[in-house]
Design a protein that fits this description.
The complex is a heterodimer of chains A (661) and B (215). Chain A has 661 residues and is of the alpha/beta class. Chain A has 2 domains: 279 residues, Rossmann fold; 346 residues, no CATH class. Chain A contains 29 helices and 10 strands. The radius of gyration of chain A is 28 Å and the shape is elongated. In chain B, strands 3-8-4-5-6-7 form a 6-stranded antiparallel beta sheet. Chain B starts with a helix and ends with a strand. The chains are: A alpha/beta (661), B alpha+beta (215).
Amino acid sequence: MECHAGKDTVAAEKVDEKLIFVGTPNVGKSVIFGFVTGRYVTVSNYPGTTVEVTKGVGKIGGRTVQIIDTPGINTLTPMSEDERVTRDILLEEEGYRVFQVCDAKNLERSLPITFQLIELGVEFGVILNMSDEAERHGIQVDEEKLSRILGLPVIKTVAVRRKGFDKIPALLSEARSGSFRVDYGDYIEDAVEKVGRILESRGYARSKRGLALMILSGDTTLREWLKENFSPEEIEEMEKVRSELERLVGVPVSYHINNARHRSAARIGMEVKRIVPRKKHSFLDHFGRLSMHPIWGVPIMLGVLYVAYLFVGKFGAGTMVDLLEGKLFGEWVNPFFVKLFENYVPIPIVRDFFVGDYGIITMALTYSLAIIFPIVGTFFIGFGIMEDSGYLPRLAVMVDRIFKKIGCNGKAVLPLILGLGCDTMATLTTRILETTKERIIVTLLLALGIPCSAQLGVVLGMLATLGPVATALWIAVVCGIILAVGYLASLIVKGEEVDFIMEIPPMRVPEFRNILVKTLARIEWYLKEAVPLFILGTVVLFVADRTGLLQVIDRVSAPVIVTLLDLPPKTAEAFIIGFLRRDYGAAGLYAMQKAGLLDPTQVLVSLTTITLFIPCIANLFVIIKERGMKIALAMMAFIFPFALAVGTAMNKIIRLLGVSF
Amino acid sequence: MREHSKDEILELIWTREEEGERTEAGLLESSQEENTEELIEELIHDGLVERKGENIVLTPSGHERAERVIRRHRLAECLLSNLFDLEDDHIESSACKFEHILSDRVTESVCTFLGHPPFCPHGKPIPRGECCRKFTTHVVPLVIRLSDAELGGEYRIVFIIPKQKKRLERLSAMGLIPGVVVRLIQKNPSYVIQLGETMIAVDRGIADEIYVKRV
């Protein structure tokens, strides 16, 4: 085995070769990439997690290779942001080779991309991954025959077991442009010829066939590229050929081209696939089916969510937090530092800055490391298992109809569930949704009603002391508001109906190592983002406390807090701090509840209000970045009074009815 | 052409009977044929219609022939409107031509293809044919929407009629193209289709636009 990790040692060396990984989603591309470079990328089962492009450097067969991992795609004529990113990389980069990673059991899905790479004149090799899964499904691919037909080197691998990786160096050195040619029929071929001549005159001789087909598909994402590289007359000429062709073939040209590719793929598939005895339906196949079943799917969904709650809410937010906060920080770390500062730091203000009520160690680090870390950690482990097992897309199938009511489709459940981990991260993943309308609605719901894991942990902990009625009430109010606001938003936000078309990957037993590495990467990201903000938040609090600003805020907001919500003035602090980190605010309420400052109704009202209250500052920044300042401000302008209004209504109704918990 | 004109008159008598009109005077008035009076005499001579006082009515054999013409005409209307989304005047003029040229065999195929529709696009009843009577017992329509397909059944996609062009591209990029065989795994809460080793979930709107034929 000659290819091994060596990112740090070779980074400074000269790069001998450039290699790009291309493939459909969920084929294990990232695992092979991680193996070759030694650097890990998020592996997941639903389209869209690898939106970020990852680069790395590795050694293959003694050569230093710079490697780019591209997002999973179905076609190089882009229909999603991911596909566009991948296509652009292939157009922009120069002097590279490509590894196309395919799912061996689903060869026909990958071959259209193979054809496109051939048409672009790319030098590449084909990796048939997951060949073990294919054989379990009764499919054996004759890779030598496939290699002859395509005119390309082909190898078989089982990435998760590192099988077949010894053939990777040979695949790289043998990479070449394939010889297979899809026949698109006379009309299209003639048009390709005409456009090809223009491309050739501009130095795109090698890739002209592929480029011509993209242009003829009417791919609007190519416009910029065309403008940069061709004269207006040439563009007009090509457009003329295209519209003439569209008139001739009647249906969209891209559809014709896709059809021709899939037909060729099906023919090749029949030639190279051998059907071997299929293993019986496994338990996982059955479970996968049941989890989408209109009746059985519901208890499974509730069961999965309950197990997730037990793991994150009970184990993470309960047992682990007790251990870390109560024991480690409460009995060891904090007393140690308090003593240290008392003995060696004579200036009281410096001492308080670090170990006082709003101290960096006693507050910021304790909160972030002892409370947030275990909750977020267990959440990401749970989410990773749901992701890698293939359950999440099935969940999307279950909820599609409900989500249609709020102007989205089932896919929107993915960012919303992720929002229960971290709203900031979830807002970023709204990119997997296709329309702006959906993105705006989901972003709003995340900002408004979805509590992140840290906040959820504290909230559930506090509700537990109030009993099941209060908990049910909190859940009902928050869920009801999410649905109602979503429904109204779907009427207000303009945009087209959204299609639900989603590939469902097979259920798999998640690989322990993948989950572990992925969770670590996410926690690393989280801590890097969270801890500095925690410290900043604590410093702001510390300063506000010392300068008396905190008291001023308490006084100013007192009328609202006291008269409308019937809460003690000090609660204002929690709401304001909640802006720095949502959970931070909830933690403030937690402290007040423990100190006996809140009665049960006050706890419920304050929790509901803070759940709906404006999102944390990090989330706000991401909303501005993703949706623009105007929409972000509009959302805040809605959420701020709305949360207070709901809290007020809840408070008044509970008191009017005389309900007690 | 003579036979075509006779068919037109028979058809007119049929549709007028549907509206409860039988008078000869009315018939002469609404006919667009040039020599209607002559044609009526010929039809009487052929034993297809008879004169009863002021009225002209179909004989049993005339009824049979008119029924077939009507059936061809209205099936043609269904074909043109359901499948090709043509405007009304196109449908009418083409259907008038179709009614004369469709053989019985082709008529049965069209009827089966359309799933034995009981009414034409204008809501008038389509006379039942031999194939429709079989249908009620053991023949199923050739082409149906995927949303009407049976669970677990294997179907070949015949055509896809999307509301938006974009959909066609997205479906075809996933390999859902005419000619491929799919299996319908479930309908609720979403439609799940098995295509080779790929499982794809779609919503009802899309399942409605995919037309399939049982394998």
